[in-house]
Known about the structure:
The protein is about 55% helix and about 0% strand. It has helices spanning about 15-25, 35-40, 60-75, 90-95, 100-120, 125-130, 135-150. The longest helix is centred in the last third of the chain and has 18 residues, at about 100-120. The two termini are about 65 Å apart. The relative contact order is 0.12.
Amino acid sequence: xxxxxxxxxxxxxxxxxxxxxxxxxxxxxxxxxxxxxxxxxxxxxxxxxxxxxxxxxxxxxxxxxxxxxxxxxxxxxxxxxxxxxxxxxxxxxxxxxxxxxxxxxxxxxxxxxxxxxxxxxxxxxxxxxxxxxxxxxxxxxxxxxxxxxxxxxx
Length: 154
């Protein structure tokens, strides 16, 4: 900011003369140490939006693994395990869960609830529903149950 006054008793300073005076006082100045590269200039890092990492819940994982099992080994009606390795829906759930744990129970309940949503309230068990529908209808229920588990984060 420059402030001008009406009356001045100051003598203007010749900047070149000022620089020469300091050079005479210190003819070989020690150069200032260079700033480390990290501090010299801040690195501009673009800010990007990173989606938060979402972990798959145990029910969603069980349902997804069971559907993958059906895709790999085949889907069956009227038997838990077909002699050639295919399984019904409950057999696939058991294979995916590994044991009758909470994820197995909750995945089964969600699958049966979705079957009832799509095919009526009369279904009391997964095997009875599985055996009464086509492969496409069964797959539709599996996919909807997986989406619900994902949405519910379970």
